[in-house]
Structure formats: structure tokens, C-alpha cells
From TrEMBL:
Domain DUF4283 stretches: 2-58
Domain of life: Eukaryota
Name of the protein: DUF4283 domain-containing protein
UniProt organism field: Gossypium arboreum (Tree cotton)
Length: 139
């Protein structure tokens, strides 16, 4: 795992057993880059990362939550805004952040939202939204 992370002063990996590994970084910038760049996989297995705090037992942490960036497509123009990102994010999991993406012609046809997902639950792929004249006027 150290190679894709390109840690400035390397990373020390300890096998704690029970599919738990402790990654020790020596520079704060490396920790930040790895956490922000998640999700990470190793041999097609998701790595769920948690920053250990002082006096925290790594084996007592339930590693079941992962942060993902998700694309929301096929939204009418008035629906691409933060309030809708919050609603969709909380439908998928727990809303964390959003960033709208533009196509080359400047038209926003989808949005990115960051969500925290419980990996023990099945993924939600679709959500129908009902449009009416009154809903479109409020947006």
C-alpha cells in the first residue's frame, strides 16, 4: 500500500490480526492525502480507514463506514443545488459534502456528492422524484 500513497517519509504497516492493519505515517501531509483520497482498495478489497486518536484501541473501532463521492445524473436544471445534494446524500447514506461538475459547454447536468455509507447495508441505486408545476416553481 505504501507505493500508491507516495508517502514523503514512508509508511510503517503493522498487522494487528483479524483483518486489521495499522498504518503509521511520519508526515501530517501524508495522512491528510490518504484520508482525502479514499476510498482505497487492496487486491480488490475495500480499505476502510480511521485516524487513531490518542489512547484509542485500534481493535475496538468498528470499521463499517466508508466515504464515497457519488454522481447524481438526470436532474432537471433547477434541482442541481445544495439542498437537493443534502436530500440525495441522506437518502444514500450520510451527506458529507457536494461539488457540482460542469460539462465543457458549461451546462451542469450532474452533481457530485460525498456520502458516508455503511458497508454492511446494500447500496441504493435509484430514487424517483416527482415533478409538478408547483414543485418546479419553488425550486
Amino acid at each position: 500500500m505504501a507505493n500508491p500513497w507516495h508517502a514523503l517519509e514512508g509508511v510503517q504497516v503493522s498487522d494487528l490480526g483479524e483483518k486489521y492493519f495499522l498504518f503509521k505515517f511520519f508526515k501530517e501531509v501524508d495522512i491528510h492525502r490518504v484520508i482525502i483520497g479514499s476510498p482505497w482498495t487492496f487486491k480488490n478489497h475495500l480499505l476502510i480507514l480511521h485516524r487513531i486518536h490518542e489512547n484509542e484501541d485500534p481493535l475496538s473501532i468498528p470499521l463499517v463506514l466508508a466515504d464515497w463521492w457519488v454522481q447524481i445524473h438526470y436532474l432537471p436544471p433547477g434541482f442541481i443545488k445544495e439542498s437537493m445534494a443534502l436530500l440525495f446524500g441522506n437518502f444514500i447514506g450520510k451527506f458529507l459534502d457536494y461539488a457540482m461538475k460542469n460539462l465543457s459547454n458549461g451546462y451542469k447536468n450532474f452533481m457530485h456528492i460525498q456520502v458516508q455509507i455503511d458497508v454492511r447495508k446494500p447500496l441504493k441505486k435509484k430514487k424517483k422524484i416527482m415533478l409538478s408545476e408547483s414543485n418546479l416553481r419553488k425550486i
